[in-house]
Write a structure and sequence with these properties.
Layout (H helix, E strand, L loop, with lengths): L1 H52 L8 H8 L5 H101 L6 H5 L1 H63 L2 H35 L3 H11 L1 H4 L11
């Protein structure tokens, strides 16, 4: 039983240590993931700025700059502008996700780990106290058992001595039957004295036996009461106290962990929703590609270039 109680304490400590290690790993994961998201955000921002600020292959002439300033004039340039805008939005979302992961979520996990440590310590102290109380009543049971066994042995010995004295008394009584011989007449006073001594010895041993029997009965009753008390205490400890202590260790752990993970999934969902929205805008821009319209816009912007020249007039010779 002592081995079981010791293993229960060890199991409680191991369970708490496992939870603390899990929470520490999760917090470290959140911080590392935040670093990755922040680096990704910075990379996207640099990428978008790089292509937004340079002329590139689109050229740097005045006409090209005009189209770049008004990307809606040409549908391909509009697609390009939407793509860059989507990249910037991705950068902002990754930065926001990084802030959430490294801030509230990682801190919350660290706080939960501290709470788990305090709960495990309090639960362990309480379990140790309950075990000490249980072992105390078990020790009292062992004492009551030894006392009963000792009194029982004394009672058995006292009864044996009483029975022996009674047998000796019966023998003396059998030898004291009156006879007609002269020798028997002369030995009469001696036999009477012996019978009186034997009777007193029987009475003395009878009283001693009753005394030990009473002590044995009392010790037996105390032993039975202690036995019932210990069995009830053991049953209550194993069926109620241990389970209640496990519940104490679990207090708020699963709820708090679930809230953190739900916050994580919500942050990821917001990022994904923004991603889907940006891709939707890009898809709309792709669907809006309009070759005839682009041609008309080019002709409109460069009207002087594509304007038909004056008619050639007839000049006579």
């Amino acid at each position: 039983m002592r081995w079981q109680l010791s293993e229960q304490l060890r199991c409680l400590e191991l369970q708490g240590e496992l939870r603390r290690e899990l929470l520490q790993e999760l917090a470290e994961f959140m911080r590392r993931r935040a670093e990755v998201e922040l680096e990704y955000s910075r990379g996207l921002e640099k990428l978008a700025e790089r292509f937004s600020s340079r002329g590139g292959r689109l050229g740097s002439s005045r006409e090209h700059q005009s189209f770049r300033k008004e990307p809606s004039l040409l549908s391909p340039l509009h697609c390009w502008a939407v793509l860059l805008q989507h990249t910037r939005q991705q950068s902002r979302e990754s930065a926001a996700l990084s802030e959430v992961l490294a801030g509230p979520l990682a801190q919350r996990l660290s706080h939960i780990a501290e709470d788990v440590g305090r709960l495990v310590k309090k639960s362990r102290d309480l379990e140790q106290q309950l075990q000490d109380e249980l072992l105390e009543v078990v020790s009292e049971l062992q004492t009551a058992k030894k006392t009963y066994q000792a009194y029982h042995m004394e009672s058995v010995n006292a009864e044996a001595k009483l029975r022996e004295a009674e047998r000796q008394e019966e023998k003396r009584a059998g030898r004291s039957v009156p006879t007609t011989t002269a020798g028997a007449t002369e030995a009469g006073p001696l036999r009477k004295s012996s019978l009186k001594k034997g009777g007193r010895l029987v009475e003395k041993r009878q009283a001693k036996f009753m005394e030990h029997k009473l002590k044995c009965t009392k010790a037996r009753n105390e032993y039975l009461l202690s036995l019932a008390s210990v069995n009830a205490a053991v049953s209550n400890y194993y069926l109620h106290d241990v389970l209640d202590l496990m519940d104490c260790c679990d207090t708020g752990f699963h709820l708090a962990l679930g809230q953190v993970l739900r916050s994580y999934t919500a942050a990821e969902s917001r990022t994904q929703a923004s991603q889907v929205q940006g891709l939707g805008s890009l898809e709309e821009a792709v669907e809006a590609l309009d070759p005839p319209g682009d041609k008309a816009k080019v002709l409109e912007v460069h009207a002087t270039v594509f304007c038909p020249p004056l008619r050639f007039d007839y000049h006579p010779h």
